[in-house]
Design brief:
CATH architecture of the largest domain: 2-Layer Sandwich
Number of strands: 15
Shape: globular
CATH topology of the largest domain: Fructose-1,6-Bisphosphatase, Chain A, domain 1
CATH class of the largest domain: Alpha Beta
Number of helices: 7
Strand content: 15-25%
Bound molecules: 6-O-phosphono-alpha-D-fructofuranose
Radius of gyration: 19 Å
Strand order of the largest sheet: 4-3-5-6-7-8-9-10
Helix content: 25-40%
Number of domains: 2
Structural class: alpha+beta
Distance between the termini: 51 Å
Length: 326
């Protein structure tokens, strides 16, 4: 007989999961665990704001543009503020870079971690109630603690991330992250205020038949091999799925197999997506899940950023699909 909900265990909460994994990071002495908890707390707050966005005056634009040229939404600013506040409180993080901030934020403390954030990716979809996400990367500070931070601390290759992940604010909200030992997904249970382990040890199929690209860009794609690849997807009758929120498209392809492509175009000759705020984190996750992420020439995680707002083409998802493109 099927168990009633009463008999079912609540499951492994994020706190319990982090505690159980602390043995993998003896050097973290709990600071790293607290940092993950701070990210989860900020995610809960942003999730709450998004859920009522249609009811209070926090939708729409603020009339500014961020360093990447994206029009800033009120919720971009709200999410940025919430995450920076949550990460500042704990003391584990000494510096933050954000897609929504021109330069780095020095928190002037003796924390040993650096965080790179896209506080609300896909925010152009918010006003039409489509899923959006937060993307984060965690690095160790390079310069000596208690000295002024420099750009060197932030311009690190993605392969030096110690953790990365994303929050998907969707029909149910999820936190998916890696600390270099596989990828785990947690579903938010609002009645408990807890993220509960729902997708342990996520693995991305090496093959897939979903491709995600803005077909409207077809005539402005610079790289001919991308045009040929897209035509090949159509010849094989693959499924085209493009939400316009990277986190949502990435998450679907992670679970079902597939490839997301944002090539260099005449409008974005160096690519549109931000290496430090979007691509590095998702590249770490996909590689830990058995997938692959490149810029068409090299692995995303090996790219040396030249500025904190560095952009590059991004091809990410099922290993064999990305390999057949490169
Ligand atoms: P386009 C959102 O601005 C974003 O960074 C990703 O979330 C999304 O996949 C992409 O840009 C959408 O860009 O040019 O297709 O509107």
């Amino acid at each position: 007989m099927e168990k009633s909900r009463i008999d079912l265990p609540i499951g492994v909460t994020l706190d319990r999961f982090i505690k159980s994994k602390e043995s993998e990071y003896p050097s973290a002495v709990g600071a790293f665990s607290q940092l993950l908890r701070d990210i989860a707390l900020a995610a809960k707050v942003v999730n709450r704001e998004l859920n009522k966005a249609g009811l209070i005056d926090i939708m729409g634009n603020v009339g500014n543009y961020n360093a990447g040229g994206d029009e800033q939404k009120k919720l971009d600013i709200l999410a940025n503020t919430r995450f920076i506040r949550a990460l500042s409180k704990g003391g584990e993080v000494c510096g933050i870079i954000s897609e929504e901030s021109e330069s780095f934020v020095d928190l002037e403390n003796d924390g040993k971690y650096i965080v790179a954030l896209d506080p609300l990716d896909g925010s152009s979809n918010i006003d039409v109630n489509v899923s959006v996400g937060t993307i984060f990367s965690i690095y160790k500070r390079i310069t000596t603690i208690n000295t002024a931070l420099t750009e060197t601390d932030f311009l690190q290759k993605g392969k030096y991330q110690i953790a990365a992940g994303y929050i998907l604010y969707g029909p149910s909200s999820m936190l998916v992250f890696t600390t270099g030992n596989g990828v785990n997904g947690f579903t938010y249970e609002p009645s408990l205020g807890e993220f509960v382990l729902s997708n342990p040890n996520i693995y991305c199929n090496e093959e897939g038949n979903i491709y995600s690209i803005n077909e409207g860009l077809s005539n402005s794609i610079i790289d001919l091999k991308v045009k040929k690849y897209i035509q090949n997807c159509k010849d094989n009758e693959y499924t085209a799925r493009y939400i316009g929120s990277l986190v949502a498209d990435f998450h679907r392809n992670l679970l079902k197999g597939g490839i997301y492509l944002y090539p260099a175009t005449t409008k974005y000759p160096n690519g549109k997506l931000r290496l430090m705020f979007e691509s590095n984190a998702l590249a770490f996750v996909i590689e830990q899940a058995g997938g692959k992420a490149t810029n068409g020439e090299m692995d995303i995680l090996d790219i040396q950023p030249t500025t904190i707002h560095h952009t590059s083409p991004l091809y990410i998802g099922s290993k064999n699909m990305v390999n057949s493109l490169s």
